[in-house]
Write a structure and sequence with these properties.
Layout lengths: L2 H18 L3 H13 L1 H24 L1 H7 L1 H27 L2 H13 L1 H13 L2 H14 L6 H25 L3 H9 L1 H21 L3
Helix pairs in contact: 1-8, 1-9, 2-3, 2-9, 2-11, 3-7, 3-8, 3-9, 5-11
Protein backbone atom coordinates (compact mmCIF):
# COMPACT_ATOMS: atom_id res chain seq x y z
CA UNK A 1 0.00 0.00 0.00
CA UNK A 2 1.45 3.36 -1.01
CA UNK A 3 2.11 6.11 1.53
CA UNK A 4 -0.52 8.39 -0.02
CA UNK A 5 -3.24 5.72 0.18
CA UNK A 6 -2.26 4.94 3.74
CA UNK A 7 -2.54 8.63 4.66
CA UNK A 8 -5.96 8.89 3.04
CA UNK A 9 -7.26 5.85 4.92
CA UNK A 10 -5.89 7.31 8.13
CA UNK A 11 -7.70 10.60 7.46
CA UNK A 12 -10.96 8.79 6.65
CA UNK A 13 -10.71 6.67 9.81
CA UNK A 14 -10.05 9.75 11.93
CA UNK A 15 -13.01 11.55 10.36
CA UNK A 16 -15.37 8.62 11.00
CA UNK A 17 -14.35 8.49 14.65
CA UNK A 18 -14.73 12.26 15.07
CA UNK A 19 -18.04 12.56 13.19
CA UNK A 20 -19.74 9.39 14.43
CA UNK A 21 -18.86 9.80 18.11
CA UNK A 22 -21.56 11.34 20.33
CA UNK A 23 -21.64 15.11 20.05
CA UNK A 24 -24.12 17.99 19.92
CA UNK A 25 -24.84 17.55 16.20
CA UNK A 26 -25.45 13.80 16.43
CA UNK A 27 -27.55 14.13 19.57
CA UNK A 28 -29.67 16.83 17.95
CA UNK A 29 -30.19 14.71 14.82
CA UNK A 30 -31.19 11.74 16.97
CA UNK A 31 -33.64 13.81 18.99
CA UNK A 32 -35.25 15.40 15.92
CA UNK A 33 -35.44 12.04 14.12
CA UNK A 34 -37.36 10.39 16.97
CA UNK A 35 -39.47 13.44 17.70
CA UNK A 36 -40.14 15.04 14.30
CA UNK A 37 -39.55 12.22 11.83
CA UNK A 38 -37.26 11.38 8.95
CA UNK A 39 -37.75 14.46 6.77
CA UNK A 40 -37.00 16.89 9.59
CA UNK A 41 -33.94 14.91 10.68
CA UNK A 42 -32.58 14.75 7.13
CA UNK A 43 -32.98 18.52 6.74
CA UNK A 44 -31.13 19.07 10.01
CA UNK A 45 -28.45 16.59 8.92
CA UNK A 46 -28.08 18.45 5.61
CA UNK A 47 -27.23 21.60 7.55
CA UNK A 48 -24.66 19.73 9.63
CA UNK A 49 -23.10 18.23 6.49
CA UNK A 50 -22.95 21.66 4.86
CA UNK A 51 -21.21 23.09 7.92
CA UNK A 52 -18.69 20.25 7.93
CA UNK A 53 -17.91 20.68 4.24
CA UNK A 54 -17.58 24.44 4.70
CA UNK A 55 -14.96 24.06 7.44
CA UNK A 56 -13.20 21.43 5.34
CA UNK A 57 -12.91 23.85 2.46
CA UNK A 58 -11.75 26.61 4.77
CA UNK A 59 -9.10 24.34 6.26
CA UNK A 60 -7.98 23.30 2.78
CA UNK A 61 -7.49 26.92 1.72
CA UNK A 62 -5.72 27.81 4.95
CA UNK A 63 -8.31 30.34 6.05
CA UNK A 64 -9.37 28.48 9.18
CA UNK A 65 -5.71 28.16 10.18
CA UNK A 66 -5.75 31.92 10.64
CA UNK A 67 -8.54 31.54 13.19
CA UNK A 68 -6.27 29.50 15.42
CA UNK A 69 -3.78 32.39 15.46
CA UNK A 70 -6.32 34.90 16.64
CA UNK A 71 -7.72 33.97 20.03
CA UNK A 72 -10.51 36.53 19.67
CA UNK A 73 -12.03 34.70 16.71
CA UNK A 74 -12.19 31.40 18.56
CA UNK A 75 -13.57 33.12 21.65
CA UNK A 76 -16.43 34.53 19.58
CA UNK A 77 -17.15 31.08 18.13
CA UNK A 78 -17.13 29.58 21.61
CA UNK A 79 -19.54 32.17 22.97
CA UNK A 80 -22.01 31.78 20.12
CA UNK A 81 -21.68 28.00 20.14
CA UNK A 82 -22.04 27.73 23.90
CA UNK A 83 -25.07 30.01 24.03
CA UNK A 84 -26.72 28.13 21.18
CA UNK A 85 -26.22 24.81 22.97
CA UNK A 86 -27.74 26.29 26.11
CA UNK A 87 -30.70 27.45 24.02
CA UNK A 88 -31.16 23.89 22.75
CA UNK A 89 -30.88 22.63 26.34
CA UNK A 90 -33.66 25.03 27.38
CA UNK A 91 -35.90 23.84 24.54
CA UNK A 92 -35.31 20.18 25.42
CA UNK A 93 -35.96 20.90 29.08
CA UNK A 94 -39.24 22.63 28.28
CA UNK A 95 -40.30 19.67 26.14
CA UNK A 96 -39.37 17.23 28.92
CA UNK A 97 -41.60 18.97 31.47
CA UNK A 98 -44.48 19.75 29.10
CA UNK A 99 -47.56 17.62 28.65
CA UNK A 100 -47.84 15.22 25.73
CA UNK A 101 -50.08 17.55 23.71
CA UNK A 102 -47.79 20.52 24.30
CA UNK A 103 -44.76 18.50 23.24
CA UNK A 104 -46.46 17.44 20.03
CA UNK A 105 -47.40 21.05 19.28
CA UNK A 106 -43.81 22.14 19.87
CA UNK A 107 -42.63 19.42 17.50
CA UNK A 108 -45.07 20.51 14.81
CA UNK A 109 -43.95 24.10 15.09
CA UNK A 110 -40.33 23.02 14.63
CA UNK A 111 -41.21 20.80 11.68
CA UNK A 112 -43.08 23.50 9.76
CA UNK A 113 -39.97 25.18 8.39
CA UNK A 114 -37.46 23.03 6.58
CA UNK A 115 -35.15 25.99 6.13
CA UNK A 116 -35.16 26.59 9.90
CA UNK A 117 -34.08 23.01 10.53
CA UNK A 118 -31.33 23.30 7.93
CA UNK A 119 -30.11 26.56 9.46
CA UNK A 120 -30.13 24.98 12.91
CA UNK A 121 -27.81 22.19 11.76
CA UNK A 122 -25.60 24.60 9.84
CA UNK A 123 -25.35 27.05 12.73
CA UNK A 124 -24.56 24.30 15.21
CA UNK A 125 -21.57 23.17 13.15
CA UNK A 126 -20.34 26.62 12.14
CA UNK A 127 -20.24 27.82 15.76
CA UNK A 128 -18.33 24.77 16.99
CA UNK A 129 -14.62 25.67 17.22
CA UNK A 130 -13.80 21.98 17.59
CA UNK A 131 -14.95 21.49 14.00
CA UNK A 132 -12.41 24.05 12.83
CA UNK A 133 -9.57 22.48 14.76
CA UNK A 134 -10.57 18.95 13.75
CA UNK A 135 -10.51 19.83 10.07
CA UNK A 136 -7.14 21.55 10.38
CA UNK A 137 -5.81 18.38 12.03
CA UNK A 138 -7.30 16.18 9.30
CA UNK A 139 -5.93 18.25 6.44
CA UNK A 140 -2.52 18.43 8.12
CA UNK A 141 -2.59 14.67 8.66
CA UNK A 142 -3.45 13.94 5.05
CA UNK A 143 -1.22 16.46 3.32
CA UNK A 144 2.49 15.74 3.35
CA UNK A 145 5.31 17.86 2.01
CA UNK A 146 4.54 16.63 -1.52
CA UNK A 147 0.82 17.18 -1.32
CA UNK A 148 -1.09 17.74 -4.55
CA UNK A 149 -4.49 19.14 -5.35
CA UNK A 150 -5.60 15.61 -6.26
CA UNK A 151 -4.90 14.40 -2.73
CA UNK A 152 -6.62 17.43 -1.27
CA UNK A 153 -9.66 16.74 -3.46
CA UNK A 154 -9.61 13.11 -2.32
CA UNK A 155 -9.59 14.19 1.32
CA UNK A 156 -12.45 16.66 0.92
CA UNK A 157 -14.49 14.42 -1.38
CA UNK A 158 -14.05 11.32 0.74
CA UNK A 159 -14.86 13.09 3.99
CA UNK A 160 -17.91 14.73 2.35
CA UNK A 161 -19.24 11.28 1.39
CA UNK A 162 -18.54 10.01 4.91
CA UNK A 163 -20.27 13.07 6.36
CA UNK A 164 -23.44 12.43 4.36
CA UNK A 165 -23.33 8.73 5.26
CA UNK A 166 -22.85 9.29 8.98
CA UNK A 167 -25.17 12.20 9.70
CA UNK A 168 -27.95 11.14 7.32
CA UNK A 169 -27.51 7.59 8.59
CA UNK A 170 -28.32 8.78 12.10
CA UNK A 171 -31.40 10.53 10.71
CA UNK A 172 -32.59 7.42 8.89
CA UNK A 173 -31.91 4.91 11.67
CA UNK A 174 -33.46 6.91 14.50
CA UNK A 175 -36.56 7.86 12.50
CA UNK A 176 -37.63 4.22 12.07
CA UNK A 177 -40.85 3.00 13.66
CA UNK A 178 -39.16 1.24 16.63
CA UNK A 179 -37.20 4.38 17.47
CA UNK A 180 -40.26 6.61 17.15
CA UNK A 181 -42.16 4.21 19.39
CA UNK A 182 -39.29 4.33 21.88
CA UNK A 183 -39.44 8.12 21.90
CA UNK A 184 -43.17 8.14 22.56
CA UNK A 185 -42.74 5.79 25.52
CA UNK A 186 -39.72 7.55 27.00
CA UNK A 187 -40.20 11.10 25.75
CA UNK A 188 -39.55 12.81 29.09
CA UNK A 189 -36.42 10.79 29.77
CA UNK A 190 -35.03 11.35 26.27
CA UNK A 191 -35.70 15.10 26.31
CA UNK A 192 -34.23 15.35 29.81
CA UNK A 193 -31.11 13.53 28.63
CA UNK A 194 -30.80 15.89 25.67
CA UNK A 195 -31.27 18.90 27.95
CA UNK A 196 -28.50 17.72 30.26
CA UNK A 197 -26.20 16.86 27.36
CA UNK A 198 -26.65 20.21 25.61
CA UNK A 199 -26.40 22.10 28.89
CA UNK A 200 -23.14 20.45 29.91
CA UNK A 201 -21.69 20.81 26.41
CA UNK A 202 -22.67 24.49 26.28
CA UNK A 203 -21.18 25.28 29.69
CA UNK A 204 -17.99 23.40 28.88
CA UNK A 205 -17.64 25.35 25.65
CA UNK A 206 -18.23 28.69 27.38
CA UNK A 207 -15.85 27.91 30.24
CA UNK A 208 -13.09 26.20 28.26
CA UNK A 209 -9.79 28.01 27.91
CA UNK A 210 -8.34 26.17 24.91
Amino acid sequence: MSTSVHQLLLVYAAYVIAAASPGPSNMQIIGVAMNNGRRAALLLAAGVVSGSIFWGMMAATGISALLTRYAEALVVLKIFGGLYLLYLALKAGRAAFSSGDEAVQMSRDDALSGSALYRRGLLMHLTNPKSVLAWIALVTLGLGPEASWQRLAAILGGCAVLSVTIFCGYALVFSTAPMVSLYRRARRWIESLLAVFFGVAGLRLLLSRA
